[in-house]
């Protein structure tokens, strides 16, 4: 094999999971209720087959077997997420679960004993239900609560965990507030989703700055955020569709990436302009997209040691309007589609488009 087609010696290969998707033990010991527990127990018909994560893969009890499977495959890293409500049952930092902390200590120790580097995600969509009852991610106070939660985690596990991810796929988190895609399944499109974007970015930055100023020197770890994006290619070879493809990616990935990774910070210019314009057209006295203070822009800018990226599939984009009015989709002014020739995975939305990943990178 050509050397150009081999991974370098320091290339890290691993696998990932999410606490609600694998742990089970939804009420084990003194774990608190999270938004997925609440949704699946109070509105079971919202989920196909009335499924839930009460048991899931039972990783809460079978973590040793899970680690052995990871080792047998040959992975050298494992990215798992910490269940906020397992370690802080009420969501607040004044009630800490000893049993919850012990579980993650056992998991981390098992990983390290088998030569597998732990990568810990602080948030993978499972907000404690008591915090959701305060408004969840549309409430600006959530950024402060997240920072307090992060402090407990850094203090407890930072001597063992050297790779941290603050939030996994914030784009999907806001889908629970605007489109009703996920828990808490709210349908306040074009308003609540932007409020959640704003709070999530501030929460991420607060956790990053806390680690950077208080824990990095002694723990010597790295911390960042993981975004997700589909590559968008113009459906037609026209200026309008090429611009629509870029615009769609700005509303999907750039809305989070630009405030963190760009030199100037803040939201992408096209996102700000379109949401402001549409808000004014709708007769609103202020934009549906909140505004950062200059201090917040500076705090968010540069708040990641790496660019975490998840990629699943790609789409074609053409200029046009789709979705409710108002909505993030409609603000983007892009209509997405698939090539019928693309193979479909088990999930109908998941099209196999290998070239899209290269193009995205």
UniProtKB/TrEMBL annotation:
InterPro entries xref list: GH, Glyco_hydro_1
Matches recorded under Pfam families: Glyco_hydro_1 (PF00232)
Any GO BP: carbohydrate metabolic process
Any one GO MF annotation of this record: beta-glucosidase activity
Family stated for the protein in its record: Belongs to the glycosyl hydrolase 1 family.
PANTHER family given in the database record: GLYCOSYL HYDROLASE (PTHR10353), LP05116P (PTHR10353:SF36)
Name under which the protein is recorded: Myrosinase 1
Species in which this protein is naturally found: Homalodisca liturata
């Amino acid at each position: 094999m050509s050397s150009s087609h081999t991974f370098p010696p320091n290339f890290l290969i691993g696998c990932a999971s999410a606490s609600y998707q694998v742990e089970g033990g939804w009420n084990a010991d003194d774990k608190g209720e999270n938004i997925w527990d609440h949704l699946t127990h109070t509105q079971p018909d919202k989920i196909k087959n009335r499924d839930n994560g009460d048991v899931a893969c039972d990783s809460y009890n079978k973590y040793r077997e899970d680690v052995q499977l990871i080792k047998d495959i040959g992975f050298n890293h494992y990215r798992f997420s910490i269940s906020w409500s397992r370690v802080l049952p009420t969501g607040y930092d004044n009630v800490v679960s000893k049993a919850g902390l012990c579980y993650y200590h056992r998991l981390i120790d098992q990983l390290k004993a088998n030569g597998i580097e732990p990568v810990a995600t602080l948030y993978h969509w499972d907000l404690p239900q008591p915090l959701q009852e305060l408004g969840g991610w549309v409430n600006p106070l959530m950024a402060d609560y997240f920072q307090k939660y992060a402090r407990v985690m850094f203090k407890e596990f930072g001597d063992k965990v050297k790779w941290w991810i603050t939030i996994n796929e914030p784009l999907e988190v806001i889908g629970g507030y605007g489109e009703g895609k996920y828990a808490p399944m709210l349908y306040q499109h074009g308003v609540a989703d932007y409020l959640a974007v704003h709070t999530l970015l501030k929460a991420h930055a607060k956790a990053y700055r806390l680690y950077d100023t208080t824990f990095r020197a002694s723990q010597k770890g790295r911390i960042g955020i993981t975004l997700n994006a589909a590559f968008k290619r113009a459906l037609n070879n026209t200026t309008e569709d090429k611009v629509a493809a870029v615009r769609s990616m700005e509303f999907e990935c750039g809305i989070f990436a630009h405030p963190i990774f760009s030199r100037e910070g803040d939201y992408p210019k096209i996102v700000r302009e379109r949401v402001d314009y549409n808000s004014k057209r709708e007769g609103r006295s202020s934009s549906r997209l909140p505004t950062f203070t200059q201090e917040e822009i500076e705090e968010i800018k540069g708040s990641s040691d790496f660019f975490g990226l998840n990629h699943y599939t790609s789409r074609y984009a053409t200029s046009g309007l789709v979705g409710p009015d108002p909505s993030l989709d409609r603000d983007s002014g892009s209509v997405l589609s698939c090539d019928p020739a693309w193979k479909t995975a088990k999930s109908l939305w998941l099209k196999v488009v290998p070239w899209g990943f290269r193009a995205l990178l």
